TrEMBL record:
The keyword Mitochondrion is assigned to this record: no
Residues of the signal peptide: 1-16
Name of the molecule in the record: Tartronate semialdehyde reductase
Organism: Subtercola lobariae
Residues annotated as the enzyme's active site: 166
Domain of life: Bacteria
Gene3D superfamilies assigned: N-(1-d-carboxylethyl)-l-norvaline Dehydrogenase, domain 2, NAD(P)-binding Rossmann-like Domain
UniProt keyword annotations, A-Z: NAD, Oxidoreductase, Signal
Coiled coil: none
Amino acid sequence: MRIAVMGLGFMGSAFAGRFLETGTEVQGWNRTPGKADGLVAEGLTELASPDAVADDTDAIFVSVSDDKSVLALAVPEGNPRSAWAGRYIVVTSTVSADAYAKLVEAYGDRFLASPVLAAPAAVRKGAAILLLAGSQGARTDLAPLWEQFSTVLDLGETPATASIIKLLNTHMMLANVAVYAETVRIGREAGVDDKALAQMFDASPTVPEGGLRARLEGFFDPDHKGWFSSPLAAKDLGLTLALASSDSTFPVTAAARDSYLQVAKEGWADVDITGIVEYGNPRV
């Protein structure tokens, strides 16, 4: 099977690397040159443009940041790419149900939504949870690709379902990170040192096992290294709020979204979401 990955940021590179490791032929394109160098060394064929896919490409994976980027790449000026005709189009990005609807209109039964419930490192190891929603044919024909991952949730024929489930899952993580960040800030202002706060997180039964617990280490890293930035967090929480009816209010979610927006304005937009612990501490 031969695929192409469009967008070689953290998540796109993880997908490309995973498929290369499992024997899939992989092509890749990225808007910023140089992103593919390490993957080329592993066997990836770098593409000069999104339209340069090989004739025998089975599926094109799109992994860019938001609705605007996905639609500009997959349906430029509102039209499907003629070079992508006859291939399955798999979008792994977290985007709105409206964006999925436009992709279905453009590519019909060849479109598949497949957002991820995991960090890029888990994707690269094959330990990610993939959500699948789209035509039965797409889900079945690409089965050899899904077999490279530990867990796949088949959500049926409606792509919007995958968007909703992904947003709800991400919402839980982002809201918790915002709360735990304020816990650290309050603790510091009360005179507790970081070592004691880190020990509390490690020992507390109120902090769930898994990815969230591991991420909290980033609060105590002054560089807040990671891959999920506060602007992306605010984007996802905004999409989550948009799922609800207009006459409902969700003050906790709105406050978390606004906090991620504010810390980004204060100069922490290019670090991991754990940089929210710097709220009120402008970066110089």
